[in-house]
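EI: anyone free to look at a 168-residue chain?
SC: sure, send it
EI:
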Amino acid sequence: MNWAEQIVKTLKDWDTSLIAYVPDISIHTVTSIIDEDPFFRLVSATREEEAIGIAVGSYAAGRNAAVFMQSSGFGNSINALASLCIPARTPIPMFINLRGGAGEFNIAQVAMGRAVRPIMDQLGLVHFTLEDDRNMDKILDGAMKLCHANRQPVAVCLTQLLHGGKLA
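SC: here you go
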């Protein structure tokens, strides 16, 4: 099972059927699998805070949701996380394509890519970084368990080392 299939399996195992996302080529491997599976409802958002709002609304209506985004767009979601998800204790797993690391070709991606994890630390949000698929099943299951038990967003950062990154 490759990394994308493992993410999809974990989402299913945790009955997370609504997926809000901002399109990105590096997460397309996952979202294309999700889009083909009738278990899921895949909702494309124009901005990351919109994806967070969709996921919170889904959870409020009784349906578990997750969000997929790129690290550069994570900055757009900070207010939605800090003023909606955290105070409302909403368990939203976020899968973030972490740009700006080894192999990055676009200098504009570096600053936000480096800032994602420190910002999450400041917000008190737990995050995990996946650089390979070793123990991925255990890490993802543990992240989902923590997300739901703590009723807080949890981030899983997906690096270029895991998914191959974007080409220039």
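EI: The first strand starts at residue 16 and ends at 21.
SC: 👍
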